[in-house]
Amino acid sequence: MSKVIKILGTGCPKCKTMTSLVTEVVNENNIDASIEKVEDIMEIMTYNVMSTPALVVDDVITIKGRIPSKNEILALLN
């Protein structure tokens, strides 16, 4: 079953870095996942996240307010 990954952030440099890292991990490990960038502040607020970037995997907020390592992202996706 494909994972649904959402990266919540308004387009700041940290958000872009997280997007790049998540994309690299998914591609390097052949993970079946769709990556969606959520930049709309009202939609981000529905997740009750006050600090971005945030990583949401299958509607569960896994990381917020910091950039994870590639190993941490891989662990969350496996």
Automatic annotation (TrEMBL):
<protein>
    <submittedName>
        <fullName>TM0996/MTH895 family glutaredoxin-like protein</fullName>
    </submittedName>
</protein>
<dbReference type="Pfam" id="PF13192">
    <property type="entry name" value="Thioredoxin_3"/>
</dbReference>
<dbReference type="InterPro" id="IPR036249">
    <property type="entry name" value="Thioredoxin-like_sf"/>
</dbReference>
<feature type="domain" description="Thioredoxin-like fold">
    <location>
        <begin position="5"/>
        <end position="77"/>
    </location>
</feature>
<dbReference type="InterPro" id="IPR012336">
    <property type="entry name" value="Thioredoxin-like_fold"/>
</dbReference>
<dbReference type="InterPro" id="IPR005243">
    <property type="entry name" value="THIRX-like_proc"/>
</dbReference>
